[in-house]
Amino acid sequence: MSSPVSTSHLQLAAFALGTVGWILCTVSMGIVEWRVWHVDNNTIISSGVAWVGIWKVCFISYLHVSPGYKEQFCHKFSGYDFSIPHEIYAAQGLLLIAMFTGLLGLTATIFALRNVCMGITHKTLITRFFLVGGFFYVLAGLCVLIPVSWNFYSVTHNQSITFPPSYFMPSSPAAQEAGAAIPIGIVAVILLLLSGTFSLSYRLPVTANTITKF
User: Fold this and answer.
1) Phi, psi dihedrals of residue 160, rounded to the nearest 5°
2) What angle do CA 136, 142, 148 make, to 5 degrees?
3) pTM of whole model > 0.85?
């Protein structure tokens, strides 16, 4: 007869994948390189490249338009900037939800694996923890997938953003490309969804010592 430990290898892999996916989700949320804008006018944007993130926009300027950043000027998005596209504000909220739900998934998986390793074969308890963890992993993956896909669509269609004058940004780039945050987000989605699938597939083996309560 197989033991619970020997049948939980996929769930252990789910924990590892979920941990990496959650970290990558957090990294993608924090970096500014979601969209890379290439501009023709180098008067203020000296390098000709600007980075548009979900929290702020940054570029290199030799005019020191912002003394606090020396040569790098960054302007944080405000909730009152109605010209900022919906996909940016949606990404802010959804990635915060993904970070929180991913953490809940990790916590539930840790409790389930702890019970398995300690030989606590209460079928209902362990199964519920794995199911809850898998649900949160899948939810986190979907919350990352939506903003990543939405912003990638905007990049591939070279959509413009009407920034307020205080941003020192043109309304549209000469060209734009996906920044590092988007592929990082895609990897996070894959890992989180795989983790959720593995967690949801758990079935406790029936043994003589299994305690089943309904």
Assistant:
1) -95, 165
2) 140
3) no
